[in-house]
Every structure is written in C-alpha cells, then in structure tokens.
Amino acid sequence: MVSNPGARGSVELARQARLDARSGKLTGPTANLAPGHVQANLAILPRALAADFLHFCQRNPKPCPLLAMSEPGDPALPELGHDIDIRTDIPRYRVWKNGELVAEPTDVRDIWRDDLVSFLIGCSFSFEEAMLDNGLPVRHIEQGCNVPMYRTSIPTHAAGAFSGPLVVSMRPLKAADAIRAIQVTSRFPSVHGAPVHIGDPSLIGIADIGRPDYGDPVEIRAGEMPVFWACGVTPQSVVASVRPEFCITHAPGHMLVTDLVNSRMAVF
Amino acid sequence: MVSNPGARGSVELARQARLDARSGKLTGPTANLAPGHVQANLAILPRALAADFLHFCQRNPKPCPLLAMSEPGDPALPELGHDIDIRTDIPRYRVWKNGELVAEPTDVRDIWRDDLVSFLIGCSFSFEEAMLDNGLPVRHIEQGCNVPMYRTSIPTHAAGAFSGPLVVSMRPLKAADAIRAIQVTSRFPSVHGAPVHIGDPSLIGIADIGRPDYGDPVEIRAGEMPVFWACGVTPQSVVASVRPEFCITHAPGHMLVTDLVNSRMAVF
C-alpha cells in the first residue's frame, strides 16, 4: 500500500497494468504501478441498489468521491481509461453474497450479470503522492505497512438502505506539516480532499489510536498530531452492512489503475 | 478590534475614514470602518534603516506581509489609495525615540522628515472577515476584546539589525473549523495567510495559553484547539528591540484604511 513519488509513468504503464491483470500475470497489489496515475476503489452492485448507492455517494463525497459509474451490465468505463473491462482489469476481486465473502477471484466474467453497475471511487494513493511530492512524510509508507483506519462516531448521511459510520485513515504529522498537508490535500476533492479531523482522536469516537479497526498501527512521534482523512473503506463497510444479495468489490490494495493523472485531479 | 462581516462599504467609506482622521474628527480605532476594505499596520523608519527593514519583511513574509513602501520623505502611498497622506490619515500614531514611546499624536506633519520611509503591512482584520464570511467563529470578536498574542520560540529570519522572535495571534477553533480556517486563510498570503501552528502551545514556546504577551486572553472551550497565525506585532516588537533613534508607528487598532478590497487579496 505505498505510492511512488518518483518517475511518472506514461499512460502505457497504466494500460499495461490493466492488461497484466486481465491476462492473469498481475494478481497482487497495485501500489507503485504506473506512478502518477489515479487508482480507484471498486464496488459493483445490482441495479436495484445502484440508485440508492449513487445517492449515498452524492451525499458523502469525502469518503465516497465517485470517479465514474457504469451503465448496467456494461463492463466499460470510458471516463477512466481506454478499453477498460471491469470484469478482468482488477488483479483480485472479492465476491459477496448476502454480506458474506464467498470468493476472491482474479476475474469475474463467469459471474457477470446484466444488471450489475460498477462504482469507481477515488483512493488516497493520489493525495499521498501529492504529500510526498511536497516533502511531507507519510508514516505508513515509511514503515512499509498499511495505513491505519478507524471507525468513528461521525455518521455518514444515509441514503436508502445505505448508512453507517465514517471510516477515517490516519497519518501523523508535525503541526506545520499538518497545515501544509491540509493545503496540499484540499486541492484534491475528488480523492478524499482535506482532512476531516486533526488532533484528539476521542473527539471522533476513537478510543485507542494504537488499535486501528483496519490496517496497521503506525508510530506517532513526540510533537506530532494525528491527522484524519475520510477513507474509501467507508463505502465498503456501508455496503457490507446492507448485506446485498450479490456484490463485488476489489480486494484491499488491488485497485483499478486508470488512465487519469493524479496531478490533473487538482482543482487549483 | 473587530471586523464587520456585513455590508460592504464602497471605496467612499474608506476615503471618508482617512479624511475623518485627517481632519481630526476620527481619533479612535478603525475596526468596523469601511467594512470589506483592507486595513494596514504602519512602521515609519529613517532611510538609513529602511533597506534592512525591507529585507526583514522580504525574509519574513508571514508576520510582515508588506503591502506598500513609500519613497523617502513622500507621504503618498498610491498603491493603497487615492490621495493618501500617511502623516495625517491614521487616527492616532505612536512616536518613538531611541526605543522609548514619547508621544501619541493624531498628526505627524510637524515632526515629518525628508528621510522617512513608510512601511504598510497587512493586518488580520482581512482574514478574520473571510473567516466570519465562512461562518467560522472568531472568539475575541465574540468576546469583544483584543486578540491574544504570544511571543514564541520560533525565530524570525534576521536582516541587518532586525531580528527577534515570531509573535503569533491565537484563535480557538474546533478541529473541523480549524481545517476550514486553514483553507480560508491560505487564500490570503498578503495578510498573514495560513496558520503557523495548531495544537500544543508548548511546542512553540508558549508556557501559558491563558496569559498572552499582548492583547487579552480568550476562552478555549472543550473540543477546541488553539490555532496560531503569524502576527503583525512581530515587526513592531522587532523594530522596538532595535531602538532606532526615531520611528513612528500606528497606535494599536488605529490602522490605515486603504482603498484595497479584502476579497481581492485572495490568491484563488
């Protein structure tokens, strides 16, 4: 779960990552693949739930920044890249039935249905790249582990069956770096944007910062404060709580590599 | 020391405020006069010190955002407004000799010299107006007192004889409001811009947040964090420490009301 601040790949690297996932050559996490390119979280839902989930994303743009939504049954996502087939172009999927994880395939063509709608949601890799480009430390990348994530006492805005608590990711920073990180990440509203909280974790219902609900704990050093961003795990946890009869997501860290460029996501 | 988020005056109100100061009709603080217009701090120094002070401002743009510098001996400031006479257009001045306050006149024409250079420096009124416009609370305005200010352990960048600690102003905010305040005030680099510190005061050498070095203490409520901005008192305290043989400043709160508009100071 790391992003690479170094060389920026051409769009060919993004397309190659998808082709490698399609052919079965790539089955692992996508961190560091096609640096500079936007990666996306995936949720695939039956059409009967799609309108409500779209409404949920519209109401909760910080945890659910929707980059693209497909037509029902159509595996293409032309806004995100040339020739995408969402049934094959992610290295590993998770298939859920009635809220239970039933399989982790590398291809979902055999279970595809004409009523399935794909939602592609922005991912923190994009703003972490901007932080690293600004010389800001990203602790979980330094430590080579997953970002720590926490369920909070902040409710999301419900839509239809979808509701539940906001999940946040945390990166510890010195105060001056936290201020700069707010400036840098505010430029990227379509990939979670500015933090939602800084400082005292108990104010957002986090009892023990050393015990994240998802991911790994990271060190918080003297003089640092925890900085919390809305997290793309929120829609996954919200979808899981609805226990839809059928649903497909990406496996954690196994994202869709898109043709979009991170730097082009900046609003100013 | 309050700014008015309400009706925005025309430039005529700014000019009238200066004419009232010039005629002696206005001798009090300028808060709430000509809402929407930029107000400025003043330091007038002999030419022999001007180059170093300009360099100090250039090296320390956050506490010393220089809006305009006059020609030696020239009381006009055409960048800041039509027909300004800096010798008369501020309601009350402070005159310093060898670092000692010797007078607080309402007019300095009788002590004007051909070697005097005026420095006009941005003021927090501008970004406070933007905060209020964004629905953010400004505690000292709510409490009807002066903003609390503190000498810190953060050094300024010295230039010639000018050096000394950064002085900061503090406004307490809830975390989500602090994040928004960072976004809002980042747009105004020419009037102090983004905060320089958030959270633990001891990290910047403030021993007791309840005892400011200048201004008045304000309440910090449960769930709020102190947010610190570089303060225009910094150049005044730095100038005072140099003890120039002659120097004129504005009396606290008695600012130059300029023709510039706060909203036009925003960089994006």
From TrEMBL, chains A, B:
<comment type="similarity">
    <text>Belongs to the D-glutamate cyclase family.</text>
</comment>
<dbReference type="InterPro" id="IPR038021">
    <property type="entry name" value="Putative_hydro-lyase"/>
</dbReference>
<keyword id="KW-0456">Lyase</keyword>
<dbReference type="InterPro" id="IPR009906">
    <property type="entry name" value="D-Glu_cyclase"/>
</dbReference>
<dbReference type="InterPro" id="IPR016938">
    <property type="entry name" value="UPF0317"/>
</dbReference>
<dbReference type="GO" id="GO:0016829">
    <property type="term" value="F:lyase activity"/>
</dbReference>
<protein>
    <recommendedName>
        <fullName>Putative hydro-lyase AGI3411_02990</fullName>
        <ecNumber>4.2.1.-</ecNumber>
    </recommendedName>
</protein>
<dbReference type="Pfam" id="PF07286">
    <property type="entry name" value="D-Glu_cyclase"/>
</dbReference>
